[in-house]
Specification:
With 304 residues, this protein is of the alpha/beta class. Helices cover 28% and strands 21% of the residues. Strands 10-9-8-11-13-12 form a six-stranded mixed beta sheet, with helices on both faces. Strands 1-2-3-5-4 form a five-stranded mixed beta sheet. Strands 6-7 form a two-stranded antiparallel ribbon.
């Protein structure tokens, strides 16, 4: 599995104890999973086959002494998160803060939409619970329940919810935490992975990068066979390209459409006369604004 990318290099972790036994490492390294620094075969470049973190790859020409190899093939992907680019994820958690920065429905929605595009169950984590009172929290939970989510609230400062979150993440082969910068993702990862704090600030490993200097996604081992992706900060994910895809990404509409599809094929449930979708939900105006923006973008793309 590709665990990190840097310029033209891929860091690949071999799976299974066989790979560890095969390696000719010194005693101190014996129990560590074997990682190889890899380049890729030029024919992968020619086929324009991209390789991303989370991809399962075939390596060859292994030099066990130098821990180097060459990636010759990329296996088909089971899922895909486009921003940040991570392949084969098995769960996605959107982290949003209750305060500092204040919960922003528009930004929250963009992160949720990009998570929903993976087709996986989307977990919502609300951070900095210590900064609001219980009434405010109850209100926010009720609001998000109406959006179609059952958030887990946490506080890194007080330690609330962290065990539950770690258990949930550990059940996933490859979990991704995404969310705006400042919500506490790094603090959370440092808490979940105590050994990580050693890496902060220190330029480590063969790739010579400190954790905070990287703009790339990197995977960290949470437990046996379970990884969590550290994602670079960005604040406004793109909307999907096709307006017809949008409805399925809003749980409020999805839950209506799944049992009773709209009677008009190709209906965007915007203001089409006769569309029977219930439009009495908080994010409906936001849904329409997203549609408008997507239609504007696709028109300018087509040059209309
Ligand atoms: P990131 O950009 O999402 O990685 O966020 P950071 O982990 O860098 O945190 C941003 C700020 O929020 C820092 O000043 C943290 O100390 C603070 N922070 C993180 N978690 C909590 C929390 O649970 N409660 C409070 N009050 N502050 C937090
Ligand atoms: Zn409709």
């Amino acid at each position: 599995m590709v665990v990190a990318l840097q310029a033209n290099y891929l860091e690949v972790e071999l799976e299974g104890s066989d790979s560890i036994a095969m390696t000719n490492l010194s005693r101190s390294q014996e129990l560590r999973p074997c990682r190889l620094l890899c380049t890729r075969r030029t024919r992968l470049h020619h086929r324009e086959q991209s390789v991303h973190v989370g991809d399962r790859v075939v390596v060859e020409a292994i030099d066990w002494q130098a821990c180097r190899a060459v990636v010759s093939q990329v296996e088909p992907r089971s899922s895909w998160l486009s921003r940040p680019p991570v392949a084969n994820i098995t769960s996605v958690a959107v982290v949003l803060s209750l305060k500092e920065p204040l919960f922003d429905p528009d930004q929250a929605t963009r992160f949720l939409l990009s998570a929903e595009q993976t087709g996986l169950d989307v977990h919502l984590v609300l951070s900095k619970q210590d900064l609001i009172n219980s009434d405010q929290l109850a209100q926010q939970l009720e609001r998000l329940r109406k959006w179609g989510y059952r958030p887990l609230t946490i506080s890194v400062k007080k330690g609330d919810g962290l065990i539950q979150l770690k258990d949930e993440l550990k059940n996933s082969r490859l979990a991704v935490l995404c969310g705006p910068s400042g919500v506490g993702k790094s603090s959370l990862l440092n808490c979940l992975l105590p050994s990580l704090s050693l890496r902060v600030g220190e330029v480590s490993g063969r790739l010579q990068r400190g954790r905070h200097t990287t703009r790339h996604v990197e995977l960290f081992r949470l437990g046996e066979g379970s990884f969590v992706a550290d994602t670079p900060g960005f604040n406004r994910p793109e909307l999907p390209a096709d307006p017809r895809d949008l409805a399925a990404l809003f749980p409020e509409l999805r839950s209506q459409l799944e049992p009773f599809p709209c009677r008009f094929r190709d209906c965007l449930h915007h203001d089409e006369p006769g569309c029977g979708m219930n439009k009495d939900w908080e994010r409906y105006p936001l849904y329409k604004r997203c549609l408008d923006e997507m239609q504007r973008l696709s028109r300018s793309f087509r040059g209309d």
